[in-house]
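hey so u asked for the seq, here:
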Amino acid sequence: MKDLKDLKDLKALKVLKAGTGAAVVLCLATALVHVLLVFLHVAPPNPLSQQYSRQVNAWVLPLFEQNWRLFAPDPESVNRQISARTMHTAPDGSVEVSDWFDLTGVDNSAVRHQVFPSHTAQNMLRRAWSSYLETHGGDDQPRSQRALMIQQYLTNIAADRISGHRGGTFESVQLRVITVPIAAPKPADTRYLPWWKVDSHGN
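ran it, structure tokens below
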């Protein structure tokens, strides 16, 4: 009986070792692929990076984007207040539009008086908007796959934050961006983006 138990323990140990070995190999393979894709993203253009640019960009952007802004950031010349509102079509066909929700204000309150503020609170919305400006013209029309991806990223940030703070049911979200020059007697510039469809939120 003891020999049978020892045999079962030995088999279980072998299965555990095999599982651990497989997990280690998978982690190492993922890390190597990640390093290779990031290297191709930051390396000078070459035949390999050009041939697989779609796959490289799909992996790297927007979460693993590499640039020099950490070492030489562009100084902000304006303050931006980004707000969002939602739209819901009721079963009777009536359209309900919510009040504006201050996304920037939520980020600012999460950073203010924090010794170690969250990177997400400081940069996610700001960087998403900067990327949106880089990929969209003044007419808010996406003209590339990257532009569509950035638009979806910005939409998801707004929808998730509204759901987390206000709840409610909605199918579309609209952003308003008020830009105020820093230390300049110029009037604020307000930009309304189009209504964007989102996955239905709420009950």
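The chain has six helices and six strands. The radius of gyration is 24 Å.
lmk if thats what u needed
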